[in-house]
Design a protein that fits this description.
The chain is of the alpha+beta class and about 90 residues long. About 55% of the residues lie in helices and about 15% in strands. The protein contains five helices and three strands; from the N terminus they run H-E-H-H-E-H-E-H. Strands 1-3-2 form a three-stranded antiparallel sheet. Helix 1 packs across helix 3 and helix 1 packs across helix 5. The longest helix has 16 residues. It is globular and about 45 Å long. It starts with a helix and ends in a 5-residue tail after the last helix.
């Protein structure tokens, strides 16, 4: 797992019970969209993240719908394991 993908996973873990959108994750991780979105796609492909469209009326909200991301149960476990590995000084440090 790349350092950038780890950063995304840990940012999602920080508020694992919330939905996140791309711009918010870019601010949290410091990653650009060309790095962030491929990482999210990889994480989703491995079943660690799920994504879905925000349920709003774009006209009423005055903005387009956002694609939202949230860790799955497996994603939470993987992110917690990553955190434990970092604290212990293992390969992810």
């Amino acid at each position: 797992m790349t350092t950038q993908t780890q950063a995304v996973l840990l940012a999602l873990l920080a508020k694992f019970d919330s939905d996140h959108y791309g711009l918010d994750l870019m601010k949290q991780t410091g990653l650009k969209s060309g790095t962030l979105y491929p990482a999210l796609i990889r994480l989703e492909g491995h079943g660690l993240v799920r994504s879905f469209w925000e349920d709003i009326d774009p006209v009423k909200a005055g903005r387009p719908r956002r694609r939202l991301y949230r860790l799955t149960a497996d994603g939470i476990a993987q992110a917690q394991q990553l955190t434990s590995s970092r604290v212990g000084g293992n390969a992810y440090a």
